[in-house]
Amino acid sequence: MRTENPVGTEKLTGTESGHDLRHHGDAEVRDGGGSLVDLAVNVRADTPPTWLREHIAASLDGLAAYPDGRAARAAVAARHGLPVERVLLTAGAAEAFVLLARALKVRRPVVVHPQFTEPEAALRDAGHTVDRVLLREEDGFRLDPAAVPEAADLVVIGNPTNPTSVLHPAEVIASLARPGRLLVVDEAFMDAVPGEREALADRVDVPGLVVLRSLTKTWGLAGLRIGYVLAAPETIEDLERAQPLWPVSTPALAAAQACVGPRAVAEAAHAAHRVAADRAHLLTGLARFAQAGLRVVEPAQGPFVLIRLPHAASVRSRLRGLGYAVRRGDTFPGLDEEWLRLAVRDRRTVDGFLRSLERAVAG
């Protein structure tokens, strides 16, 4: 059953979703036999770097012992200038969404879409009725805080948002905080933003703030599963009680400790500027398809861009035949089959993609 609510919200009850919330970018490439150039998955190319591989490999000597997350937890806390009591290590950000859905007693959760679909999927799997706030293309998919129902006691939003690549101002998001409300901000791609401007991860002055970070995107560790939650100590305690014992493996803990150290933070900052330059190159190339009806959501601030294109499903199929995988957009609430998401890649890869896109659009 679906009912329409005021201020652009959509309530879903029972098991209804209307979208394939479990579809992710890896599905676009995993059946390609390794032959597809991947513009569907938002993991930085050429990662993990050699030094990180070697660091993780060295941790294998300790596999006989149970994982001890204290050093990694302290390193994450130090990276954000927070006490360790405000940090929880998780098996990727996806586990954090499951913990939030299962451990916290909320009555009216709201997910701001279009965005990463796992938060809603986890909430619905845990038996919650979920309200959607659908941001609009004509507004550039930017957040209007007034669209979020006042009665919401859990609000989830991404920043920068996957798949729109919109970076919402930190103070606009912070304005959603209310007494008795948890404000969950998915910052999985924030370290790909130069200067991490608009980040809320280090803030302790926003009531009910819960920030999720992933180390899999920038460092190419999707197969290792490592992320973390930053929140008030009482929220961390609630989530930790819902975790199984030793939820994060020894190699993942080693990766976490390394990826938040000064060397890694500096390398990620450099990579963020390189991604921004590569994204600008991609956007310049896409501009020449305007006469074909292609529109880009701008300004894009993440390591991916969202485009709208007539007959996008057919174009995506032709691109696949030409050796390129891109992410379909119609599995994101608020989007339809005319949307595609493109991961930012190096200039050589982008140039090859643009030549293939020209052929795909021509049919």
TrEMBL record:
Keywords: Aminotransferase, Pyridoxal phosphate, Transferase
Domain Aminotransferase class I/classII large: 37-356
Signal peptide (from-to): none
EC number of the protein: 2.6.1.-
PROSITE patterns registered for this protein in UniProt: AA_TRANSFER_CLASS_1
Ranges for region Disordered: 1-25
EC class: transferase
One Pfam family here: Aminotran_1_2
Single Gene Ontology MF annotation: transaminase activity
Gene3D superfamilies: Aspartate Aminotransferase, domain 1, Type I PLP-dependent aspartate aminotransferase-like (Major domain)
Highest taxon above the source species: Bacteria
Family: Belongs to the class-I pyridoxal-phosphate-dependent aminotransferase family.
Entries under NCBIfam families matching the protein: PRK07908.1
Protein name (database record): Aminotransferase
